[in-house]
Amino acid sequence: MNRERRAKIEAVAGRLIQEVMTTGLTWDEAVAVFGLAAKATAQAAVRLGAGTPADCLTVARIRFEDAFAQDVRVVVTESATQ
Q: Between these two residues, 69 and 77, which has the higher pLDDT value?
């Protein structure tokens, strides 16, 4: 993955985390949101002709697991915790 693509992915992930933190969900409920989003994205891909339901779900699971295996650093600021 090139730097530009990785920067876009990191930016979207950061915005999603900020948004989820404002919902009042617990951290483990927030994690479930991302799993549901991965599955919903795969279903949308099927409707857009990207592949069969089984193929798109397989790719989504692989991407989800690959992303989970990445090293990340999180900075929580005082304003983000309120």
A: 69
Residue 6 half-sphere exposure, CB side, CA atoms within 13 Å? 7
Q: What is the pTM of this model?
A: 0.79
Q: DSSP letter for 24, please.
A: T
Q: What is the pLDDT of residue 74?
A: 86
Annotate 41-78 with DSSP letters as a single string: HHHHHHHTTSS-HHHHHHHHHHHHHHHHTS-------H
Q: Is the pLDDT reported for residue 73 higher than 70?
A: yes
Phi first, then psi, for residue 20 (nearest 5°) are: -65, -35
Q: How far apart (Å, rounded) are the C-alpha atoms in residues 40 and 45?
A: 9
Estimate to the nearest angstrom the gap between the alpha carbon of 13 and the chain centroid: 6
